[in-house]
Design goal:
About 65% of the residues lie in helices and about 0% in strands. With about 130 residues, the protein is mostly helical. It has one domain. The longest helix has 29 residues. It starts with 10 loop residues before the first helix and ends with a helix. The mean pLDDT is about 85.
């Protein structure tokens, strides 16, 4: 295809791409920051295993979000799996199996707010495919 035969992308598709890019970019920045803090010795809990697992899950979230931005459909599954697993580890700590400072004063349902941005990314991604 030449540049003369290509059509510009319609505005709704451009907006959906920008939504995906902006939200995924924010999520990637947040998780890279958390990994950087962990690398500098700031621990989330008193368990080395728990902190290591959280780091692996955050790395998986970063990788899957990069693939989502690149338009890979299978990355939505890996994004949901890694985010769901990270939320599960928060519940693991919340219900007393790991001592962590971030659980103090939090309601158990507060961890579910981590599902809002991935839901918007998923809707924009799937709607864009139609």
């Amino acid at each position: 295809m030449t540049t003369l035969t290509t059509r510009p992308e319609p505005a709704p598709h451009l907006i959906q791409r920008l939504i995906i890019l902006a939200l995924a970019g924010l999520f990637i920045f947040y998780h890279v920051t958390m990994l950087t803090d962990f690398a500098h010795g700031q621990m989330l809990s008193n368990s080395v295993f728990y902190d290591g697992l959280q780091s692996v899950l955050r790395g998986a979230i970063i990788a899957s979000l990069i693939l989502v931005v690149l338009g890979k459909r299978f990355a939505l599954w890996t994004m949901w799996l890694s985010i769901g697993s990270l939320i599960a580890t928060h519940y693991w700590a919340h219900f007393g199996m790991v001592e962590a400072d971030f659980i103090i004063g939090r309601h158990p349902l507060s961890y579910l707010k981590g599902l809002i941005m991935p839901s918007i990314v998923t809707m924009a991604f799937l709607y864009r495919r139609r």
